[in-house]
Automatic annotation (TrEMBL):
Residues 391-416, 480-515 are annotated as: Disordered. InterPro entries: RCC1-like_dom, RCC1/BLIP-II, Reg_chr_condens, Ub_ligase/GEF_domain, Znf_FYVE, Znf_FYVE-rel, Znf_FYVE_PHD, Znf_RING/FYVE/PHD. It comes from Gossypium mustelinum. Residues 481-492 have a biased composition (Basic and acidic residues). RCC repeats lie at residues 28-79, 90-141, 142-192, 193-244. PROSITE patterns: RCC1_2, RCC1_3, ZF_FYVE. The lineage of its organism: Eukaryota, Viridiplantae, Streptophyta, Embryophyta, Tracheophyta. This is FYVE-type domain-containing protein. It holds the Pfam family WD40_RLD. The keyword Zinc applies. Residues 249-311 form the FYVE-type domain.
Length: 515
């Protein structure tokens, strides 16, 4: 529990920066605490505080929102009528570091206390978000303003914005309802539940499927039909909360599988994978891999189609694992393949049941020059374990594309693919080259790891040697102290004995006659 002046108050909004925190209470008071460098706390100085302190410059005003950047802070406050006339809500105040014009006052001077950003009296703000050196604010009419610069073009221009500037581009005709700001990127949510992002994209935080920067608001296509409800930004990532597209309208009345209407007897059940409504007969199976399962370790009801898809994924994964375990080492020259007895047929029951399997299994693949001669085996039996192939049956497969979801790997083996591969012996040489290259890369990687481990072991040995030396020194010192203690005890014992002897002679001497 956070103590101090804020204790016992109801907090309605909170914002965390890299080095400081701001909290808004339900009564409109603003408290800040943390590192006060550049005056980011707004207390009129650069001192830090470990307990929440109220920002006295905003007393008499009602703080609605606050946002912490790295070294600056911004807040939306409601002005009383006697100070702002008719328009009394949604004014923007900023303070802290202004090196990149992120305070919006037209200069680089820092502000130690909250300062009002000069803008039209008719412009009222409802939200504000701060990045590393940028500030973004949202008006009550759904327009986005930005100020600051990061020399990356994040703010919609190659330069910077010394004062609040309205963002145009793809959101010019949209009403924005929520804004969020990372270190160097911005995300907004429109009234039609769409997400737009722009700025730095080096870590994929823009959500456009690449690492490219964007200098104008760009629609996130992956969330276009997801009904986004919230959007937030971390320093270099973005997250959005979306509504799941459940079955609506007439789909609630009929089973999505058999299309029979739901009745008192034919009850409706939802599939925990696709979310559609089904009757009991069409959704009688359960799976542990349902996407909408409330508990991951508990099987949930799914429809027949989803059950088939989830089962196929499981079988494909197990087939690939068994193929990987049974795959034998191929000689680097590419001229030898493992003998057919080496391969465990028990791991391929589906392949053994094919009518054409026994026919092509016993064939010999003869090279035109008579160099290559061996048994023909499926590609997933002989290929590299780190690569998957979907091109049919090959002698040694090195394809890098993932297996197709539409067809089983077994069903893709045809006689045409067999003859095609046999007619192209160059593929085998290419596969051998790829095998050599991959093995070389693995060897170099292992060497690097060995060198790193060797260096670490040397460092640990040196530390161990120093520790052993200190331990020996400590033991020697302890032995020396023990000898000293032993000698001291002997001296004390001797002195005690002499003292006892002196006390024994005293009475005898006192009985002698006096002269």
């Amino acid at each position: 529990m956070v103590r101090g002046d804020i204790e016992g108050m109801r907090v309605s909004y909170i914002s965390c920066g890299a080095w400081h925190t701001a909290a808004v209470t339900s009564t409109g008071k603003l408290f800040t605490f943390g590192d006060g460098a550049f005056g980011a706390l707004g207390h009129g100085d650069r001192s830090s505080t470990s307990l929440p302190r109220e920002v006295h410059a905003l007393r008499g005003l009602r703080t609605v929102r606050a946002s912490c950047g790295v070294w600056h802070t911004a807040a939306v406050v409601e002005m009383p009528p006697e100070l702002s006339g008719e328009f009394s809500s949604g004014k923007l105040v900023t303070w802290g570091d202004g090196e990149k014009w992120q305070l919006g006052h037209g200069d680089k001077e820092p502000r130690l206390v909250p300062s009002l950003v000069a803008l039209s009296d008719t412009t009222n703000f409802s939200q504000v978000a701060c990045g590393y050196s940028i500030t973004v604010a949202l008006t009550d009419t759904g327009k986005v303003y930005f100020m600051g610069s990061d020399d990356r073009g994040n703010l919609g221009s190659s330069g910077c914005s010394k004062t609040p500037t309205c963002v145009k581009g793809n959101i010019k005709n949209s009403r924005i309802e929520e804004i969020a700001c990372g270190s160097y990127h911005i995300a907004v949510r429109s009234s039609d539940a769409k997400i737009y992002t722009w700025g730095k994209g080096a870590n994929g935080q823009l959500g456009h499927g690449d690492n490219e920067d964007r200098n104008i608001p760009t629609l996130v296509e992956a969330l276009k039909n997801k009904q986004a409800m919230r959007v937030v930004c971390g320093s270099n990532f973005t997250a959005a909360i979306c509504l799941h597209d459940w079955a609506l309208g007439a789909d609630h009345l009929n089973c999505s599988g058999c299309r029979n209407p739901f009745t008192f007897i034919r009850k409706r059940h939802n599939c925990y994978n696709c979310g559609l409504a089904f009757c009991k007969l069409c959704s009688s199976k359960k799976s542990l891999k349902a996407a909408l399962a409330p508990k991951k370790n508990k099987p949930c009801r799914v429809c027949d189609d989803c059950f088939s898809k989830l089962s196929w994924k499981k079988e494909s994964r197990s087939a690939l694992e068994s193929a990987k375990n049974s795959r034998e080492v191929i000689h680097l020259n590419g001229n030898e393949l493992p003998d057919k007895d080496i391969i465990n047929r028990a791991s391929f029951p589906k392949l053994a049941r094919l009518p054409s399997f026994d026919s092509f299994r016993s064939r010999n693949c003869n090279h035109d020059r008579g160099v290559f001669k061996s048994q023909c085996y499926p590609s997933f039996l002989l290929g590299n374990s780190t690569r998957k192939s979907t091109s049919g049956l090959r002698m040694v497969s090195r394809g890098s594309s993932p297996p197709s979801r539409k067809s089983s790997p077994v069903s893709s083996f045809t006689r045409n693919s067999i003859h095609t591969d046999l007619a192209n012996p160059e593929l085998l040489l290419d596969d051998s080259k790829h095998s050599v290259e991959s093995l070389t890369q693995e060897i170099s990687l292992l060497r690097t790891q060995v060198e790193d481990l060797t260096a670490k072991s040397q460092v640990l040995e040196a530390k161990l040697e120093r520790t052993s030396k200190r331990w020996k020194e400590a033991m020697a010192a302890a032995s020396e102290e023990a000898e000293k203690n032993k000698a001291s005890k002997e001296i004390i014992r001797s002195l005690t004995a002499q003292l006892n002897q002196g006390r024994g002679k005293g009475p005898e001497q006192s009985t002698l006659p006096r002269n």
